[in-house]
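Worked example 3. Consider a protein that binds zinc ion.
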Amino acid sequence: MKAVCWHGANDVRVDTVPDPKILNPRDAIVKITSTAICGSDLHLYDGFIPTMEKGDILGHEFMGEVVEVGSGVNNIKVGDRVVVPFTISCGNCFFCNRDLWSLCDNSNPNAWIAEKLMGHSPAGLFGYSHMLGGYAGGQAEYARVPFADVGLFKIPDGLTDEQVLFLTDIFPTGYMAAENCRIQSGDIVAVWGCGPVGQFAIKSAFILGAERVIAIDRIPERLRLAETYGGAETINYEDADPGEVLKEMTGGRGPDAVIDAVGMEAHSMDAMGVYDKVKQAVRLETDRPTALRQVLVACRKGGNVSIPGVYGGFLDKIPMGAAFNKGLTFRMGQTHVHKYLRPLLELIQEGKIDPSFIITHKLPLEQAPHAYEIFKHKKDNCIKVVLKP
Ligand SMILES: [Zn+2]
Ligand SMILES: [Zn+2]
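Given these inputs, the predicted complex is written out as C-alpha coordinates:
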Protein backbone atom coordinates (compact mmCIF):
# COMPACT_ATOMS: atom_id res chain seq x y z
CA MET A 1 0.00 0.00 0.00
CA LYS A 2 0.97 3.67 -0.19
CA ALA A 3 1.76 5.45 3.06
CA VAL A 4 3.24 8.75 4.21
CA CYS A 5 6.55 7.91 5.86
CA TRP A 6 8.84 10.00 8.05
CA HIS A 7 12.45 10.11 6.86
CA GLY A 8 13.84 12.89 9.07
CA ALA A 9 13.24 16.55 9.78
CA ASN A 10 11.31 18.19 6.92
CA ASP A 11 11.40 14.96 4.95
CA VAL A 12 8.22 12.95 4.45
CA ARG A 13 7.74 10.66 1.48
CA VAL A 14 4.95 8.59 0.03
CA ASP A 15 6.43 5.09 0.08
CA THR A 16 5.11 1.71 -0.92
CA VAL A 17 5.05 -0.44 2.22
CA PRO A 18 3.57 -3.84 3.21
CA ASP A 19 -0.19 -3.87 3.94
CA PRO A 20 -1.06 -4.09 7.65
CA LYS A 21 -2.22 -7.44 8.99
CA ILE A 22 -4.35 -8.54 11.93
CA LEU A 23 -1.87 -9.31 14.75
CA ASN A 24 -4.18 -9.71 17.73
CA PRO A 25 -7.78 -10.92 18.14
CA ARG A 26 -9.00 -7.41 19.01
CA ASP A 27 -7.48 -5.80 15.87
CA ALA A 28 -9.30 -4.52 12.81
CA ILE A 29 -8.02 -3.29 9.46
CA VAL A 30 -9.52 -0.08 8.13
CA LYS A 31 -9.39 1.03 4.50
CA ILE A 32 -8.86 4.74 4.84
CA THR A 33 -11.12 7.15 2.99
CA SER A 34 -9.96 10.42 4.59
CA THR A 35 -7.01 11.42 6.76
CA ALA A 36 -5.74 14.80 7.93
CA ILE A 37 -2.47 16.45 8.82
CA CYS A 38 -2.48 17.80 12.37
CA GLY A 39 -0.52 20.62 13.99
CA SER A 40 1.06 18.03 16.24
CA ASP A 41 2.35 16.18 13.14
CA LEU A 42 4.48 19.26 12.58
CA HIS A 43 6.39 18.54 15.81
CA LEU A 44 7.39 15.24 14.14
CA TYR A 45 8.01 16.93 10.79
CA ASP A 46 10.24 19.49 12.48
CA GLY A 47 12.17 16.71 14.22
CA PHE A 48 11.34 17.67 17.82
CA ILE A 49 9.79 14.40 18.99
CA PRO A 50 12.38 11.79 20.02
CA THR A 51 12.26 8.08 19.08
CA MET A 52 11.08 8.53 15.49
CA GLU A 53 12.65 6.12 13.02
CA LYS A 54 13.06 6.39 9.26
CA GLY A 55 10.11 4.75 7.53
CA ASP A 56 7.61 5.32 10.37
CA ILE A 57 4.10 5.84 8.96
CA LEU A 58 2.60 9.16 10.08
CA GLY A 59 -0.95 10.23 10.78
CA HIS A 60 -3.39 10.02 13.67
CA GLU A 61 -6.55 11.59 12.23
CA PHE A 62 -8.20 9.04 9.95
CA MET A 63 -11.43 7.24 9.12
CA GLY A 64 -12.67 4.73 6.64
CA GLU A 65 -14.29 1.38 6.10
CA VAL A 66 -13.61 -1.78 8.07
CA VAL A 67 -12.25 -4.49 5.75
CA GLU A 68 -11.17 -7.14 8.27
CA VAL A 69 -11.75 -7.84 11.97
CA GLY A 70 -10.00 -10.15 14.43
CA SER A 71 -11.78 -13.01 16.17
CA GLY A 72 -12.20 -10.96 19.36
CA VAL A 73 -14.13 -8.10 17.75
CA ASN A 74 -17.87 -8.70 17.89
CA ASN A 75 -19.42 -5.23 17.81
CA ILE A 76 -17.86 -4.07 14.51
CA LYS A 77 -18.19 -5.81 11.18
CA VAL A 78 -16.66 -5.64 7.73
CA GLY A 79 -18.22 -2.78 5.78
CA ASP A 80 -18.84 -0.53 8.80
CA ARG A 81 -17.91 3.10 8.29
CA VAL A 82 -15.84 4.27 11.25
CA VAL A 83 -13.73 7.05 12.72
CA VAL A 84 -10.64 6.14 14.74
CA PRO A 85 -9.67 8.07 17.91
CA PHE A 86 -5.99 9.07 17.84
CA THR A 87 -5.50 7.69 21.33
CA ILE A 88 -5.36 3.90 21.64
CA SER A 89 -7.20 2.57 24.68
CA CYS A 90 -7.88 -0.92 26.01
CA GLY A 91 -11.24 -0.11 27.59
CA ASN A 92 -10.60 -2.20 30.70
CA CYS A 93 -7.80 -0.69 32.78
CA PHE A 94 -7.90 1.59 35.85
CA PHE A 95 -7.71 4.69 33.62
CA CYS A 96 -10.11 3.62 30.84
CA ASN A 97 -12.64 2.75 33.56
CA ARG A 98 -12.37 6.32 34.85
CA ASP A 99 -12.93 7.89 31.41
CA LEU A 100 -9.24 8.88 31.28
CA TRP A 101 -8.78 7.17 27.91
CA SER A 102 -5.58 8.94 26.84
CA LEU A 103 -3.91 7.59 29.98
CA CYS A 104 -4.63 3.92 29.20
CA ASP A 105 -2.15 1.61 30.89
CA ASN A 106 -2.26 -1.17 28.31
CA SER A 107 -1.78 0.39 24.88
CA ASN A 108 1.86 1.43 24.87
CA PRO A 109 4.17 -1.54 24.32
CA ASN A 110 7.14 0.80 24.72
CA ALA A 111 5.95 2.28 28.01
CA TRP A 112 9.41 1.92 29.54
CA ILE A 113 10.80 4.71 27.33
CA ALA A 114 8.05 7.12 28.38
CA GLU A 115 8.41 6.03 32.00
CA LYS A 116 12.08 7.05 31.98
CA LEU A 117 11.15 10.53 30.80
CA MET A 118 7.86 11.08 32.59
CA GLY A 119 7.57 8.59 35.42
CA HIS A 120 4.54 6.92 33.81
CA SER A 121 3.48 6.30 30.25
CA PRO A 122 0.41 7.78 28.58
CA ALA A 123 -1.63 5.74 26.08
CA GLY A 124 -0.13 4.68 22.79
CA LEU A 125 -0.93 6.98 19.87
CA PHE A 126 -1.14 6.28 16.16
CA GLY A 127 1.82 7.50 14.15
CA TYR A 128 3.47 9.34 17.00
CA SER A 129 6.94 7.93 17.74
CA HIS A 130 8.19 4.72 19.30
CA MET A 131 8.07 6.22 22.78
CA LEU A 132 4.27 6.35 22.34
CA GLY A 133 3.88 2.84 21.00
CA GLY A 134 5.49 2.78 17.56
CA TYR A 135 2.08 2.28 15.92
CA ALA A 136 1.81 2.81 12.18
CA GLY A 137 -0.31 5.88 11.48
CA GLY A 138 -3.26 6.51 9.22
CA GLN A 139 -1.86 8.72 6.47
CA ALA A 140 -1.99 5.61 4.35
CA GLU A 141 -4.34 3.43 2.35
CA TYR A 142 -4.91 1.02 5.26
CA ALA A 143 -4.26 0.92 8.99
CA ARG A 144 -4.36 -1.68 11.74
CA VAL A 145 -6.45 -0.55 14.70
CA PRO A 146 -5.70 -2.33 18.01
CA PHE A 147 -8.52 -2.68 20.59
CA ALA A 148 -10.87 -2.11 17.66
CA ASP A 149 -13.90 -3.16 19.73
CA VAL A 150 -13.28 -0.11 21.93
CA GLY A 151 -11.56 2.26 19.50
CA LEU A 152 -13.69 2.15 16.37
CA PHE A 153 -16.71 4.42 16.36
CA LYS A 154 -19.46 3.72 13.84
CA ILE A 155 -20.76 6.66 11.85
CA PRO A 156 -24.45 6.80 11.00
CA ASP A 157 -25.51 7.32 7.38
CA GLY A 158 -26.03 10.78 5.99
CA LEU A 159 -22.87 12.48 7.23
CA THR A 160 -19.88 13.22 4.98
CA ASP A 161 -16.28 12.29 5.82
CA GLU A 162 -15.52 15.98 6.18
CA GLN A 163 -18.22 16.41 8.84
CA VAL A 164 -17.01 13.57 11.07
CA LEU A 165 -13.27 13.14 10.35
CA PHE A 166 -12.25 15.60 13.07
CA LEU A 167 -13.96 13.53 15.77
CA THR A 168 -10.64 11.63 15.67
CA ASP A 169 -8.76 14.47 17.37
CA ILE A 170 -9.12 18.21 16.87
CA PHE A 171 -12.83 18.61 17.62
CA PRO A 172 -12.69 16.64 20.91
CA THR A 173 -9.36 18.30 21.67
CA GLY A 174 -10.79 21.79 21.23
CA TYR A 175 -13.91 20.78 23.15
CA MET A 176 -11.98 19.27 26.06
CA ALA A 177 -9.83 22.42 26.13
CA ALA A 178 -12.96 24.51 26.59
CA GLU A 179 -14.42 22.06 29.12
CA ASN A 180 -11.16 22.30 31.09
CA CYS A 181 -11.88 26.03 31.50
CA ARG A 182 -14.85 25.14 33.78
CA ILE A 183 -16.79 27.95 32.11
CA GLN A 184 -19.43 29.79 34.14
CA SER A 185 -22.00 31.96 32.42
CA GLY A 186 -20.59 35.41 31.75
CA ASP A 187 -17.02 34.15 31.50
CA ILE A 188 -14.42 35.59 29.17
CA VAL A 189 -12.11 32.99 27.64
CA ALA A 190 -8.85 33.87 25.86
CA VAL A 191 -7.49 31.39 23.32
CA TRP A 192 -3.84 31.51 22.21
CA GLY A 193 -3.46 30.00 18.75
CA CYS A 194 -6.12 30.04 16.04
CA GLY A 195 -5.07 26.85 14.32
CA PRO A 196 -7.63 24.05 14.03
CA VAL A 197 -7.65 23.17 17.75
CA GLY A 198 -7.94 26.85 18.68
CA GLN A 199 -10.88 27.27 16.29
CA PHE A 200 -12.70 24.30 17.81
CA ALA A 201 -11.90 25.58 21.30
CA ILE A 202 -13.47 28.94 20.41
CA LYS A 203 -16.67 27.32 19.10
CA SER A 204 -16.81 24.96 22.06
CA ALA A 205 -16.29 27.75 24.61
CA PHE A 206 -19.41 29.47 23.29
CA ILE A 207 -21.33 26.16 23.25
CA LEU A 208 -20.35 25.72 26.92
CA GLY A 209 -21.59 29.16 27.88
CA ALA A 210 -18.76 31.66 27.51
CA GLU A 211 -19.95 35.22 27.05
CA ARG A 212 -16.88 36.41 25.15
CA VAL A 213 -13.97 34.61 23.53
CA ILE A 214 -10.82 36.51 22.63
CA ALA A 215 -8.50 34.81 20.16
CA ILE A 216 -4.79 35.53 19.73
CA ASP A 217 -2.69 34.70 16.64
CA ARG A 218 -0.64 36.44 13.98
CA ILE A 219 -1.95 34.86 10.77
CA PRO A 220 -4.69 37.06 9.21
CA GLU A 221 -6.71 34.14 7.70
CA ARG A 222 -6.84 32.36 11.04
CA LEU A 223 -7.88 35.51 12.89
CA ARG A 224 -10.55 36.15 10.28
CA LEU A 225 -11.93 32.60 10.66
CA ALA A 226 -11.98 33.03 14.45
CA GLU A 227 -14.07 36.17 13.98
CA THR A 228 -16.39 35.10 11.20
CA TYR A 229 -17.03 31.45 12.02
CA GLY A 230 -16.12 31.41 15.69
CA GLY A 231 -17.60 34.75 16.73
CA ALA A 232 -14.45 35.66 18.66
CA GLU A 233 -12.84 39.04 19.20
CA THR A 234 -9.22 38.91 18.06
CA ILE A 235 -5.76 40.23 18.88
CA ASN A 236 -2.86 40.05 16.41
CA TYR A 237 0.13 39.62 18.71
CA GLU A 238 2.44 41.16 16.14
CA ASP A 239 0.57 44.45 16.49
CA ALA A 240 0.24 44.59 20.26
CA ASP A 241 1.17 42.85 23.49
CA PRO A 242 -1.73 40.45 24.05
CA GLY A 243 -1.42 40.69 27.84
CA GLU A 244 -1.86 44.46 27.78
CA VAL A 245 -4.73 44.36 25.29
CA LEU A 246 -6.50 41.65 27.28
CA LYS A 247 -6.28 43.79 30.40
CA GLU A 248 -7.91 46.67 28.57
CA MET A 249 -10.61 44.40 27.12
CA THR A 250 -11.50 42.93 30.52
CA GLY A 251 -11.59 46.03 32.69
CA GLY A 252 -8.14 45.28 34.10
CA ARG A 253 -9.14 41.92 35.58
CA GLY A 254 -7.93 39.55 32.87
CA PRO A 255 -9.78 36.65 31.24
CA ASP A 256 -11.50 34.12 33.51
CA ALA A 257 -9.88 31.27 31.63
CA VAL A 258 -7.02 30.95 29.19
CA ILE A 259 -6.31 28.25 26.62
CA ASP A 260 -2.83 27.54 25.24
CA ALA A 261 -3.63 25.96 21.88
CA VAL A 262 -0.10 26.66 20.62
CA GLY A 263 2.16 24.23 22.44
CA MET A 264 5.84 23.56 22.15
CA GLU A 265 6.76 25.41 18.97
CA ALA A 266 5.55 28.91 19.66
CA HIS A 267 6.87 31.75 17.51
CA SER A 268 8.22 34.77 19.30
CA MET A 269 10.44 37.66 18.44
CA ASP A 270 11.17 38.86 21.96
CA ALA A 271 14.28 38.12 24.02
CA MET A 272 12.70 35.10 25.68
CA GLY A 273 11.70 33.71 22.29
CA VAL A 274 15.25 34.01 21.01
CA TYR A 275 16.50 32.32 24.18
CA ASP A 276 14.16 29.38 23.52
CA LYS A 277 15.14 29.08 19.87
CA VAL A 278 18.83 28.95 20.71
CA LYS A 279 18.40 26.49 23.57
CA GLN A 280 16.07 24.27 21.56
CA ALA A 281 18.41 24.31 18.56
CA VAL A 282 21.25 22.97 20.68
CA ARG A 283 18.86 20.59 22.44
CA LEU A 284 19.22 22.21 25.88
CA GLU A 285 15.49 22.86 25.96
CA THR A 286 12.86 20.65 24.36
CA ASP A 287 10.06 23.15 23.96
CA ARG A 288 9.51 26.85 23.17
CA PRO A 289 6.82 27.78 25.67
CA THR A 290 6.13 31.43 24.74
CA ALA A 291 2.35 30.99 24.70
CA LEU A 292 2.34 29.19 28.02
CA ARG A 293 4.29 32.00 29.67
CA GLN A 294 1.86 34.55 28.29
CA VAL A 295 -1.31 32.72 29.35
CA LEU A 296 -0.09 32.40 32.93
CA VAL A 297 0.61 36.11 33.20
CA ALA A 298 -2.59 37.16 31.42
CA CYS A 299 -5.07 34.92 33.28
CA ARG A 300 -7.11 36.59 36.00
CA LYS A 301 -6.49 35.71 39.65
CA GLY A 302 -8.14 32.43 40.55
CA GLY A 303 -8.64 31.62 36.87
CA ASN A 304 -8.43 28.40 34.91
CA VAL A 305 -5.56 27.46 32.63
CA SER A 306 -6.27 24.88 29.94
CA ILE A 307 -3.44 23.42 27.86
CA PRO A 308 -4.38 21.40 24.77
CA GLY A 309 -1.17 22.45 22.96
CA VAL A 310 1.38 19.63 22.99
CA TYR A 311 4.45 19.82 25.22
CA GLY A 312 7.12 17.17 25.04
CA GLY A 313 9.81 17.65 27.62
CA PHE A 314 11.40 20.23 29.88
CA LEU A 315 10.38 23.87 29.81
CA ASP A 316 12.40 26.88 30.86
CA LYS A 317 11.41 30.11 32.56
CA ILE A 318 7.79 29.25 33.28
CA PRO A 319 6.37 31.99 35.54
CA MET A 320 5.43 29.61 38.32
CA GLY A 321 5.41 32.53 40.73
CA ALA A 322 2.55 34.12 38.78
CA ALA A 323 0.67 30.83 38.64
CA PHE A 324 1.10 30.21 42.36
CA ASN A 325 0.43 33.70 43.66
CA LYS A 326 -2.63 34.14 41.45
CA GLY A 327 -4.02 30.78 42.54
CA LEU A 328 -4.40 29.41 39.01
CA THR A 329 -5.80 25.97 38.27
CA PHE A 330 -4.12 23.93 35.50
CA ARG A 331 -5.78 21.26 33.39
CA MET A 332 -4.05 19.67 30.44
CA GLY A 333 -3.19 16.50 28.61
CA GLN A 334 -3.88 14.40 25.57
CA THR A 335 -7.57 14.25 24.78
CA HIS A 336 -9.80 11.50 26.18
CA VAL A 337 -11.25 11.15 22.69
CA HIS A 338 -13.45 8.10 23.37
CA LYS A 339 -15.38 10.03 26.01
CA TYR A 340 -16.39 12.76 23.56
CA LEU A 341 -17.27 10.78 20.42
CA ARG A 342 -20.98 10.32 21.06
CA PRO A 343 -21.83 13.74 22.54
CA LEU A 344 -19.90 15.57 19.83
CA LEU A 345 -21.41 13.44 17.06
CA GLU A 346 -24.78 14.56 18.44
CA LEU A 347 -23.76 18.22 18.19
CA ILE A 348 -22.88 17.59 14.53
CA GLN A 349 -26.17 15.79 13.87
CA GLU A 350 -28.13 18.59 15.56
CA GLY A 351 -26.39 21.09 13.30
CA LYS A 352 -24.83 22.96 16.24
CA ILE A 353 -21.44 22.69 14.53
CA ASP A 354 -20.17 21.56 11.14
CA PRO A 355 -16.49 20.70 11.64
CA SER A 356 -15.81 20.86 7.90
CA PHE A 357 -15.53 24.67 8.25
CA ILE A 358 -11.87 24.24 9.08
CA ILE A 359 -10.82 22.51 5.82
CA THR A 360 -8.95 24.71 3.37
CA HIS A 361 -7.27 22.00 1.28
CA LYS A 362 -8.18 18.53 0.00
CA LEU A 363 -5.35 16.74 -1.75
CA PRO A 364 -4.53 13.22 -2.91
CA LEU A 365 -2.35 11.23 -0.50
CA GLU A 366 0.47 11.27 -3.09
CA GLN A 367 0.81 15.02 -2.54
CA ALA A 368 1.56 14.65 1.18
CA PRO A 369 5.08 16.17 0.97
CA HIS A 370 3.62 19.31 -0.63
CA ALA A 371 0.75 19.28 1.87
CA TYR A 372 3.14 19.23 4.84
CA GLU A 373 5.06 22.17 3.37
CA ILE A 374 2.04 24.41 2.80
CA PHE A 375 0.54 23.43 6.16
CA LYS A 376 3.76 24.10 8.04
CA HIS A 377 4.43 27.45 6.40
CA LYS A 378 0.72 28.42 6.24
CA LYS A 379 1.16 29.01 2.50
CA ASP A 380 -1.80 29.38 0.20
CA ASN A 381 -3.97 30.36 3.23
CA CYS A 382 -3.66 26.79 4.48
CA ILE A 383 -5.40 26.06 7.80
CA LYS A 384 -6.25 22.33 7.55
CA VAL A 385 -5.42 19.70 4.95
CA VAL A 386 -7.38 16.52 4.29
CA LEU A 387 -5.59 13.82 2.30
CA LYS A 388 -7.53 11.34 0.18
CA PRO A 389 -5.88 7.95 -0.30
ZN1 LIG B 1 -4.07 15.68 15.69
ZN1 LIG C 1 -6.93 1.10 29.22
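Take a moment to read the result before moving on. The CA atoms of residues 57 and 385 lie 17 Å apart. The longest helix spans residues 337-349.
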